[in-house]
Design a protein that fits this description.
Layout lengths: L1 H24 L9 H12 L2 H18 L3 H21 L5 H17 L16
Helix pairs in contact: 1-3, 1-5, 3-4, 4-5
Length: about 130
Amino acid sequence: MKIVVIVARVLLGLMFFVFGLNPFLHFIPVPPMSGHAGAFLGAMIGSHYVYLVGAVQVISGALFLVGRYLPLAIALSGPVVVNILSYHLSMDLRGAPPGIVAALCWLVLFWAFRDSFAPLWVARAPHK
């Protein structure tokens, strides 16, 4: 299981780091899009929201690659993975396979570090 966790961590780290840099450096060409997918990406780019998502991806990807603060990286990347899957499943199925790989890697890492998230599942947390 340890090797699977390392592979998932490095793969997800590379994916997030590289794809997170793209909004800033524009080294991966984006084909013209239409319909809902084009409108969604147009809104993200036009509002500059893509830079926030890119920054979260770069930060969490770097943490995955370095192997430090992994629960933080998992928590930061979770909403991004959900967004990636939601986008591809509802608007553009062509790019779904990398998103599915990212989701599987994220699930492996979440499971491996589930003890770090155990306090979140307390129904009534003590108030101080």
